[in-house]
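hey so u asked for the seq, here:
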Amino acid sequence: MTIAAGTRLGIYEITGSIGAGGMGEVYRARDTRLDRDVAIKILPELFANDPERRARFEREAKTLASLNHPNIAQIYGVEDSGDTHALVMELVEGEDLSVRIARGPLPVADALHMGAQIADALDAAHERGIIHRDLKPANIKVTEDGTVKVLDFGLAKDMDPGGRSAADAMNSPTLASPATQLGVILGTAAYMAPEQARGKAVDKRADIWAFGCVLYEMLAGRRLFGGDTVSDTLASVLTTEPDFSALPPTTPPAIRPLLRRCLQREAKQRLRDIGEARITLSGPAAELGTERAGTSPQAVSDTRWRRVLPWVVLASLLLVAATVVVTRQLQPGVAPAPAAVFSVTLQPQDAVIGSTMGHRATPGLSVSPDGTRIAFIAHTGTGDAIWIRPLGDIQARQLKGTMGAHGLFWSPDAASVGFFAGGKLRTIEVATEKTDVVCDAPAAFGGTWGPDGTILFSPDERSSIYKVSARGGTPAQVTTLDLSRHDQAHRWPQFLPDGRHFVYMPWTDGSTVRPIQLASLDGTPPRTLFDAHSSAVVAGDYLLYVVDIPSRLMARRIDPESLELQGTPFTAVADDNVDYNWLTGEAGASAGGAILAYTTGKFRFSRLTWFDRTGRLLATLGEPGAHFDPRLSQDGTTVALERHDWSRGSGDIWTVDLSRGAFSRLTSAPGFESTPIWAPDGRRVAFASDQGPTPKIYVRNASGTGTEEIMVSPPARSFPTDWSPDGRHVLFMLNGGTTRTDIWSYDVQRRTAAPLLASAFDEGGATFSPDGKWVAYVSDENQRRQVYVRSFPEGEVKTQISTAGGDQPQWRRDGRELFYIAPDNTVMAVGVQAAARRIGATAAQALFTANVEQGKTIRNQYAVSADGQRFLILSAVNPGASPIVAVLNWRSLIRP
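ran it, structure tokens below
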């Protein structure tokens, strides 16, 4: 069936044909409601006329729509118009990979880069239980900037006429019309796993086989398996041994073993997880042996010395390697063992290494002083916690009693770990999991534990370094902010081996390069050692730090007696994947310096996405980015949000025209502008800014015209949360010190500010009801964050709304419903009935689960339409696991 341009399918207007295949004809179309281009795939008549299969396919499509990944073409929905049934998808511009390969082999670096993206896409899908079943170059598009988009994800299962997992080669989605689709038939058969070709049920290992075929084809410029007929091609798949001699001579040594593991005919012997392929293709081992234009063999040899040596991924060798390292460290005169690199991942597979807290600027990784264990923060569906991975074990274990942890550091005897949670500095014994509270630490930025039991830490966002006994007590100030240098904080202290001296970083917002300073417990004036893009990590008599973005991890020796720097800096790791996580101090090294560990994950991005109350994806806006706090204008036409630019070390306020998806910058000052709120007339936006030595709340025209003006200068760092409907009051969160985070109210007419809620607990997220008589907010007064409503301004009436934890309250425009996010990321709805002296609430109703990051005490992750029927959510993009890279005996890499 051919559809002419101008034909309407529901809200979609066909504008032209893109192509056709066994899975249906594809057209370019215009979404007339959201004013964007989409791809429309018309489903084959055989499929469309089977109600049972169509219903099953729609259920599958709903699952596939949850695959929000930068390398997977998004599915927007299913459209039924008369007898025509279509799939609505993201329109991906560019050529498919088969066209690219037809011009010849890809450069090795390009092939590896694209292969890593394909593997990342498969990894994300496999974690959700989705198998592609028809991976081939024709189903992979490459955009002009080199981004890979995998198409038709998971559709093979329900496009199969028998409803099976491609149990018959001729029933593959691209084998549906054997008389007319011969080229497509051969293309599909060439990538079938042997078990698929034999008619057996398949699992994710079939995708791994197809991935090996695609990667081989990119490198060699020709198909791995072929034949004149379908039967010949399938016979080749089942009997022909891969010819690896066709690979280019510059193929890195690690790639051939990877291909062999992907292409094992026996599924049980095949690579178990595509994530391993992603790690290999994106890690240092993939670069070894890769010659670029103009690179001499000698330069390649030098690069091998300067970069981390090939990764050791066999878990059975880890204990042996660790034993060799420790033994040789203890034997004087014995040559140092060579470096070995391995990756640490987590079970369960949905765990993400690295905290999702707003306190990501505190270390999430630390190596024990004896070099036998790695402690790290990981996030699962239940929240952030500390995990311990002994080097001799295959798996890590979670420490009970560390939920909500951020920032961690070992005791000198490696028996305990210090961390921050719930506004407190805490310690936990690793063996017994006994936890103790040391002192208050409202919003800590790093700690370190000395040999005499002294803990140095930065207790708050705008504080100097303090010291306290690990047994508890009153903290005492150790450093003093240098106001002449505009110091705003001192962060990330690290003790030197003598336990008296330490290094730290003075913090000034808006800078990406800051000094590393050396100080002493006796109050000796500090001195600057060097400048860096990150804090410094102490590894015996070496300091580790980062310069450049993408990052280079540098090592610089410091004499333990004179405390003077010696020699020249040495590049220990040059890894483009490290990026800004180094700036948060997510690195560790043992005191003896034998083990170095770091994370390769980058900051996770999000994308503005519309959902209905059932969780059905309606539309996406713009590209993924570091977005926070979306706020809808009163008329629902515009969103104000915070958008970070990590390369500049800054954050600005932007507005988004929802009718066009157009982003417009509202602020551009150095530093960070955050938490925008709309004036009730929709003409102005108020926001927090750290411009100058004292942060303030500013207001500016939403059009971007004119200049920003100071609204209020609170006594501490503050974040506006809402503007009353009558324009009279602005609510904001303020760090109250001993009262932790408080809610204040600013009277716009009188220009006065006063606390609304200031207690020993954390309160925040305050938002006005549409009539301005009630305030919904969050407090941890009952040991966990719950949503409450109280009358405004006197606060004489108060009701708890959530019962099992809640955050980020939002009102429906008529005030009859209140929404919030549960701890498991479920969007909850509560009916509200307000009277003059009381407020009632119905039982909470679970709407759908949102793919957002939890733990944002000052961030909203969503906005609600006026009628409460649509939710604009900052859906996390690719929040998949970021492995820890551990380097055993890293000092052997140091060259004189």
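The CA atoms of residues 731 and 757 lie 11 Å apart. The radius of gyration is 29 Å.
lmk if thats what u needed
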